[in-house]
Design goal:
Blueprint (H helix, E strand, L loop, with lengths): L13 E5 L7 H13 L3 E4 L14 H13 L3 E6 L16 H5 L3 E4 L4 H10 L4 E3 L11 H11 L5 E4 L8 E11 H6 L13 E7 L3 H13 L8 E8 L12 H8 L7 E2 L13 E3 L2 E6 L5 E5 L1
Parallel strand pairs: 1-2, 1-3, 3-4, 4-5, 7-8, 8-9, 9-10
Antiparallel strand pairs: 5-11, 6-13, 7-12, 12-13
Length: about 300
């Protein structure tokens, strides 16, 4: 089911920057503020943004307070998560997402923020933006940053991905859902678990052992999450690890194997995830996916 889109931002609107997971460096936030200000927006930092509690950006209660405050503030039109890492799932169950449903606003991020995207889709019925975060702004390509700006301001985007030897040709339409494979795997049987029936499922990951990629894909398959999709889009499977005794397949080959018994299109090499050219896309928005074996594939917001 396609989610509702929050209002597009206009010049002068306020963006709140919070960290739902790992602790943040002020340099990242300063650069993000300069970027957002250049785009015409005002910035509100979370009160607890620079707190530190071990690896986290403050305690669970501190991070939760910043996210809740950003949801409740009527002047805030978008909430930008500063970085991923780990910790978002620790705070979302004790936040009233009806507040966000009643006062829709864009929420952006990726990686560990996958948990928040999924929860927003399930609990608030809203679209959100799977896109780059302030921690990555310094290294992002101009196209990556521009894709975030365009989606925040109400534009629909079309993307292409180069031909890939593992692509499975075909076309399909469905609501695009997903994100980081490890986080999706961790949300099984929780309130954040996604219903993937009829969806175009996006997958990406970073710094995982190949056998763990296999374990996670097998779990999704056994749970029926791969059976009734409209398609799969695979982004960056970045800096994968292997054991001394090799697993014998790449991450992309593992995904292709576990989706091999189905007929829907699969696109590999999509420009999103833990890559410098991380393109933003709308989580919860209907898309049309057209995959070709020996030509570029396309993904269009419907």
């Amino acid at each position: 089911m396609e989610a509702l889109a929050p209002p597009a931002l206009i010049p002068g609107d306020t963006i709140a920057i919070v960290s739902t997971a790992r602790k943040v460096d002020a340099a990242f936030i300063n650069l993000a503020e300069k970027t957002f200000t250049k785009w015409g927006f005002k910035i509100r930092r979370g009160d607890n943004l620079f707190k530190v509690h071990h690896q986290f950006a403050g305690s669970d209660s501190s991070r939760r307070a910043d996210l809740r405050s950003a949801f409740e503030d009527p002047e805030v039109k978008a909430v930008v998560c500063a970085r991923g890492g780990y910790g978002t799932a620790r705070i979302i169950d004790d936040i009233d997402f009806d507040v966000l449903k009643q006062n829709p606003k864009w929420v952006t991020g990726y990686s560990d923020v996958t948990a928040l995207h999924s929860h927003i889709y399930n609990k608030a019925g809203l679209q959100s933006i799977h896109g780059t975060m302030p921690v990555n702004f310094e290294d992002n390509t101009p196209e990556s940053l521009e894709s975030l700006r365009l989606l925040l301001t109400g534009n629909f985007l079309s993307y292409t991905a180069p031909a890939h030897r593992l692509n499975r040709a075909g076309a399909g339409e469905g609501v695009m859902l997903g994100g980081n494979l490890s986080v999706l795997y961790s949300m099984a049987a929780s309130a954040s678990e996604l219903n993937t029936e009829g969806a175009v499922l996006f997958l990406e990951d970073l710094d995982e052992y190949l056998y763990h990629i296999d374990r996670m894909m097998l779990a999704l398959k056994r749970a029926g999450k791969l059976a009734k999709l409209a398609g799969i889009v695979v982004g960056g499977m970045t800096d994968m690890r292997d054991n001394t005794v090799p697993f014998g397949k790449t991450a992309e080959e593992i995904i292709a194997e576990h989706a091999g018994s189905y007929a829907y299109p699969i696109c590999f090499g999509f420009p999103a995830g833990h890559i410098t050219g991380n393109r933003a896309w709308l989580h919860g928005k209907k898309v049309r996916l057209t995959v070709k074996n020996d030509q570029p594939s396309s993904l269009n917001h419907c």
